[in-house]
Amino acid sequence: MVEGIGNTRRLLIVGLAFTAIMLNYVDRQIIALLKPMLQGEFGWSDRDYSHMASAFQFCAAVAFLGTGWFIDRIGLRRGFAIGVGAWSLAGMAHAFVGSVGGFVGVRAALGAAESIGTPAQVKTAATYFPPEQRSLMLGVGNMASNFGAVVAPLTIPALALWLGWRAAFLIAGGLGLLWVVAWLFVTPRTSRTPGAPGAADGDRGASVPWTALLRDRRQWAVIAAKALSDQVWWFLLFFMPDLFHRMFGMSQGSLGVPIAMIYFLAALGSLSGGILPTYLLRRGMDVNRARKGSMLLYACLILPVPLVLLTGDPWVAAGLLGLGLFAHQGFSTNVFAMTADIFPSRMIGTAIGIGAFAGNLSGMGMIELAGWSLDNGHGYTPLLLICGGSYLVALLLIHLLVPKLVVAEPGIAKVAPTGH
């Protein structure tokens, strides 16, 4: 942890990290919110649009393998600034393209650049806060994606109607560039002791060997947790509106309120995922029991999600799915915190980047499974059953791979043995 900085500056850093992730989600949603307007102007087909979405998702998945290493290698302060600057410029570039190929290209660039957000968010908590405070900070940070999911539909369409669709991309990207200036101004250049573990830029050093991490049971615990939980998030993110339309006959105009309620509950889940283990740690519980106990609670809370198949009331379904995303965000917050706990600071970005890569790929697989299931008349039944049981399986694998979570010794980057 960086020492010698006050609580006020730490809170400013948390606020800036929150804002960056919120802008991340706003930037990625603009094209979906403006799809009808852009299709009318450029004559896109639905297949053209799917190519743009696929380009974003694939490039984000691949980039996760490098962005975590990048943050670890050059330091959080500069690395986060470069990442936000890059995705802001990629977002602004949308205003200057007019062909399908051009939009595919800028979406690919945006996806690759935005992948830096996840490892940077986790590393911010590990760098500036002690273990007993990280869960709360990660919970607050994890809420940012949900706020982005709410802010974008409330602002972007109105902005595009007022100033034009190009202005929407330029203004959102411009806010990101202003964020870079604020981040560089607020964050310290180094810790009080140069080269101390977790320093904002002083934590950079020799690259972390992937081969060593992939022999480490801790890394496979993170991979399993991200793969089995992220697949649920990506599935619901892309298919929740269609689910309400197919199952309850809701029109696009009537979907907004129940979906907004679901994401509001997800935001509360992020916050609870920080508060609960923080409370347990302060009561004297060790990290292993606090983390795994919290994850067990969230894994049980998501079990009722398949009951959506049995209800004819869309508001009951919204409550069940809201509870599911509440549980997902609480579980996810503890996965991030677990990674920050068990890996030394200089390895965290790489470790979470590899895990996020697995999560994105599993999400792509779940999306393809959803298309197959719907096309073949199976509906949402197999998908919601997977959602309900996925988190208990993830926690079981975490426990089998790392029977006891232990906070990493500051500055020690030893790789855990491959045996129990």
TrEMBL record:
Record's bilayer topology term: Multi-pass membrane protein
Keyword set, alphabetical order: Membrane, Transmembrane, Transmembrane helix
Q: Could you give one GO CC term from the UniProt record?
A: membrane
Gene3D superfamilies given in the database record: MFS general substrate transporter like domains (1.20.1250.20)
PROSITE patterns membership: MFS
Keyword check for Nucleus, yes or no. no
- What name does this protein carry? D-galactonate transporter
Which SUPFAM superfamilies does the protein's record reference? MFS general substrate transporter (SSF103473)
| Taxonomic lineage | Bacteria, Pseudomonadati, Pseudomonadota, Alphaproteobacteria, Sphingomonadales
Record Pfam families: MFS_1
Which spans are transmembrane here?
Answer: 52-71, 168-186, 220-240, 260-281, 293-309, 315-336, 348-367, 379-402
